[in-house]
Amino acid sequence: MTESPGGPSPAPDFVWAPLVPELLVANLAASLVFWRDLCGFTIAYRRDEDAFAYLAREGAQIMLEERGEGRQWVTGPLERPLGRGMNFLIAVSDLRPILDALAAADWPLYMAPEEKWYRAGEGEVGLRQFLVQDPDGYLVRFSADLGRRPLG
Question: What is the pTM of this model?
Answer without folding.
Answer: 0.88
